[in-house]
Amino acid sequence: MVAVTSWGRLSSADHLVASLRSRFDAGEVIKATKPGIAYGMGRSYGDACLNPGGVLWETRGLDRFIRIDIERGRLVCEAGVLLRDIQEMTIARGWILPVTPGTQLVTVGGAIANDIHGKNHHSRGSFGDHILGLTLLRTDGEVIECGPHLRREWFCATVGGVGLTGLILTAEIQLQRVSGPWLNAETIPYQSLDEFFELADGSSSEWEHTVSWFDCVSGAGRGLFIRGNYVDVSSGPEPSGRSISVPVLPPVSVVNALTLRAFNSGYFNIGRLRAGCSVVHYESFFYPLDSILKWNRIYGPKGFFQYQCVVPRLAAKEAIADILKAIAKSGLGSFLAVLKTFGNRESQGMLSFPCHGVTLALDFPNKGKNTELLFNRLDAIVGEAGGRLYLAKDARMTRSFFEATYPRFQEFLTYRDPGVSSAMSRRLMGY
Amino acid sequence: MAEQCARLWIAGAPHQIILVGRNFARAEVVAADLRVRSPVTNVECIEVDFCSPEKIQHLADRIFSGGAVDLVLIAHGVLPDQQQCQIDLNACGEALDINGISPVLFAEAFAGHMEKNNSGTIAVISSVAGDRGRRSNYVYGAAKGMVTRYVQGLQHRLSGTGVRAVLIKPGPTDTPMTLHLKQQGARLAPVQRVAADIVKGIAAGRLVIYVPAKWALIMNVVRHMPKVLFDRLNI
Ligand SMILES: Cc1cc2nc3c(=O)[nH]c(=O)nc-3n(C[C@H](O)[C@H](O)[C@H](O)COP(=O)(O)OP(=O)(O)OC[C@H]3O[C@@H](n4cnc5c(N)ncnc54)[C@H](O)[C@@H]3O)c2cc1C
Ligand SMILES: NC(=O)c1ccc[n+]([C@@H]2O[C@H](COP(=O)([O-])OP(=O)(O)OC[C@H]3O[C@@H](n4cnc5c(N)ncnc54)[C@H](OP(=O)(O)O)[C@@H]3O)[C@@H](O)[C@H]2O)c1
Question: Are B74 and B46 in contact (CB under 8 A)?
Answer without folding.
Answer: no
